[in-house]
Amino acid sequence: MSTRVLSLLGYTFGLLILTLYTYAIFPLRLSDPVRFYFLLAIIFIPLLGYLVFRFRKKRKEAEALRQPFPDQWRAELEATVPYYQKLSSEEKKRFEQAIKGFLHSTTITGINTEVDESTRLWVATSAVIPIFGFKDWRYRNLNEVLIYPSAFKSDNYAQEGPGRHALGMVGTGPMSGKMILSKPALVNGFVRAGDGRNTGIHEFAHLLDASDGEYDGIPHLLDQQYVLPWLGLMHREMKRIQRGESKLRPYGATNKAEFFAVASEFFFERPDELQLHYPKLYDLLEKVFQQDLRRQFSPAILRKRKQ
Question: Against a cut of 0.70, is the pTM above it?
Fold first, then answer.
């Protein structure tokens, strides 16, 4: 469901509650006016504060979106992101607006490492690619991305000592609303474009998966009629990975959530190969993300990526 629809439903529900509350206390207007106005103020003052907050937030967002997209960022996208290269001029403008919107709403923090403009751009690019088929989507389950200097431990996020194998992670519990990305892994996802691996896209695919509250490998963006085919295909492909018969990397057989994230990486990194060898998987992912990458990537670009 789009952000605009959710906002409309929220405002409608709020108006309904306000109306019912006012109706309930209205009899006090004549019998006990002091209490009536006190009870009215209890709900209207916080409501007014909320509306002022929302107005200021929307105004700041609008100002951010009006800022010109930096030429340096555009040049970097053209040089390192095949996905962006094959968008039309209008789509590129929309992609750039989405990047500005993401960077305005999401804090990116370096932990013992520098967060330069390229790092910020690649985080935002990783976020925008999976949701580009949805024109009004926000990651409501994310407010901050933490950039680590290297791999880290998945159990306690430690940056030192043995057992540091994690390159990316979406937080749960106390870390809810946060994502951790290894800076080298994030960078390699773009400087080595086309190898079928992209840590940033992988982690944002997890967020899409969890937008219904569960990391279960069944994105709610998939129409109900395709859920059973997806579950069957996922089970078969995970078995193929375990037997060493799949082009998807072994980590995809860890569980259903990881299968979805690994398959999503491959879908955006090597759509030609995925469509050729796994057409059913490709078609279902196309329905999940509502993107036709066969239209976007020309044969010339695909040949270049295979070299």
Answer: yes
